[in-house]
Amino acid sequence: MLHNQTHIRELAYYLWLSEGKPEGQSERHWQTATRMADEQSNAKARAAKTSTDPSEAKGTTEPEQPDQT
């Protein structure tokens, strides 16, 4: 999945900073940032699929009434 290169670059940069700016780890940081961007994108897609329309709610739509027997 293609991601915004700027977003991945920022994630990789923050990973690099969080690890104390190690040398020679740019490829690992880039791969980790790409995975993180994938996860973020997938989470957004799942959230978009979740309907907030009350007419699509599952279960009963009428409130429970007390037994009047």
Task: Explain this structure.
With 69 residues, the protein is mainly alpha-helical. It has a domain at 1-19 and 31-40. The chain is 55% helix and 0% strand. The protein contains 2 helices and no strands. It has helices at 5-18, 26-49. Helix 1 (5-18) packs across helix 2. The N and C termini lie far apart (60 Å). The mean pLDDT is 84.
How would you sum up the global shape? rod-shaped
Strand/helix succession: HH
Q: Determine the fraction of residues in helical runs and give it as a percent range.
A: 55-70%
Secondary-structure-based class equals mainly alpha
Strand proportion, as a percent range, falls in under 5%
The largest sheet, given as strand count, sense and whether it forms a barrel, is: none
Q: Can you count the beta strands? A: 0
What is the mean predicted local confidence, pLDDT? 84
Radius of gyration: 22 Å
Low-confidence stretches: none
Question: Alpha-carbon distance between the termini?
Answer: 60 Å
Q: If helices are DSSP runs of H or I spanning 4 or more residues, what is the number of helices?
A: 2
